[in-house]
């Protein structure tokens, strides 16, 4: 019985692997360029306001290097995180983009 099941699954796995090689949608691309205007903030306990404040503090520190009393516009670029597991992870990451 196990041999019969294995005989059925192996061709399916091979076919799926072949499709992944030829299907451009199945391939993943990695971002090779990093936007220098994006700043990330983190919160270990899932606090959105804390993560946003962290990102904006980093952005403001970078912008402040260009002069005194600098104001800047920004937009929310991304919100992502990780949650769960045995440790109860609640990490939250906020990316903001400084608009010039």
Descriptive labels:
2 helices; Dodecin subunit-like; alpha+beta; 100 residues; three-stranded antiparallel β-sheet
What's the quick description here?
This protein is an alpha+beta fold and 100 residues long. It has helices at residues 2-22, 48-64, and strands at 38-43, 73-84, 89-99.
Structure description:
With 100 residues, the chain is an alpha+beta fold. The chain has a domain of 62 residues: 2-Layer Sandwich (Dodecin subunit-like), CATH 3.30.1660. Helices cover 38% and strands 29% of the residues. The chain is built from 2 helices and 3 strands; from the N terminus they run αβαββ. It has a 3-stranded antiparallel sheet. β2 and β3 form a beta hairpin. The radius of gyration is 22 Å and the shape is elongated. The termini are far apart. 9% of the residues are buried.
Fourth-level CATH superfamily of the domain at 38-99: Flavin-binding protein dodecin
Q: Per DSSP, what share of the residues sits in E-state strands of 2 or more residues?
A: 25-35%
The helix/strand order is: HEHEE
| CATH topology term of the domain at 38-99 | Dodecin subunit-like
Backbone CA Rg: 22 Å
Q: So how many helices?
A: 2
Strand adjacency order, main sheet: 1-3-2
Q: Give the integer mean of the pLDDT values.
A: 80
Category from helices, strands and their pairing:
alpha+beta
Q: Briefly, what CATH class of the domain at 38-99? A: Alpha Beta
Cα shape: elongated
Alpha carbon gap, first and last residue: 66 Å
In total, the number of strands is 3
Low-confidence stretches: 2-6
Helix percent band: 25-40%
Characterize the main sheet. 3 strands, antiparallel
* CATH architecture annotation name of the domain at 38-99: 2-Layer Sandwich
